[in-house]
Amino acid sequence: LEFRRKSVAAGLGLYLSSTVFIGYLSLGFNDRQQPGVWAALFWITLLFAAISTIAKSFIGEKPAVNIYYYSLVDARTFLFSKIIYNALLTSVISVVGYGLFALLLANLVRDVFLFFILLLLMSVGFSAALTLISALAAKSRQSHLLMAVLGFPVIIGMLSLAIKVTTNCIFDLERSSSSDELLAIAAINLLLGSASYLLFPYIWRS
Asked: In 10 A of CB 34, how many CB atoms?
């Protein structure tokens, strides 16, 4: 879909590159900078990139298009296809964002394998949470405001876990030290998927 809307892809690329460049102007290329600052800036950048992308899943869709989809496919099939698509798109954004950070702000991550597992889990989590919230917010006139309010409690917990694991990856700690956080993120993803499976048919029907 983003390939048919080239302005969306261009805007997303501009957002990522400009945000990282501003970070470069503020912090400079320094492989000794504070790991917590690097991790927090990285995940905040990815969060807003994911929100600007996934919010369009339902917000802005014309009612006639939704009626057409409703008559064409099962509600759960439709939702999970969007979640999978958004997860793949967010994964690509995460890898590109990491590349830009490594290029302009230094690559502090030592345990790259564990970090990429974290990127995958967080991409799925962002997708599952924000796609469902987008479906809920689309029913309101103040959709963007409602999406921010509903998304904050869910996302903030995942972000704190992700920042901790990222810091562990930077210091190259034992992988067992990050297992609890990774399991917690995976559990949140499972809960979000279950909630989407149960709630979305009623949301879409309304």
From this structure: 13
Structure tokens that stand for 146 in this block: 């409602």
Number of compact structural domains in the chain = 1
Q: Residue 113 is part of which domain span?
A: 6-205
**Residue in this structure with the two tokens 């564990």, named with its chain if needed:** 114
Helices 35-54 & 143-171 angle (0-180, nearest 10): 150
In a domain, 168, yes or no: yes
Please state the rounded mean pLDDT for residues 90-117.
93
Any domain includes 87: yes
Split at pLDDT 50, 70, 90, the class of 143 is low
**60-69, 102-111, 146-155, 179-188: lowest mean pLDDT where?**
60-69
- What lies within 8 Å, CB to CB, of 121 at 6+ separation is 182, 185, 186, 189
Residue 1 in any domain: the answer is no
- Determine the Cα–Cα distance for residues 122 and 49; give it in Å rounded to an integer: 13
Percent of the chain with pLDDT over 70: 87
Single pTM value for the model: 0.88
Computed over every residue of the chain, the mean pLDDT equals 85
Structure tokens that stand for 193 in this block = 């998927």
Q: Is residue 65 part of a domain?
A: yes
Q: Give the closest residue to 160 by CA, choosing from 43, 38, 33.
A: 43
User: Distance between CA atoms of 125 and 114, rounded to whole angstroms?
Assistant: 16
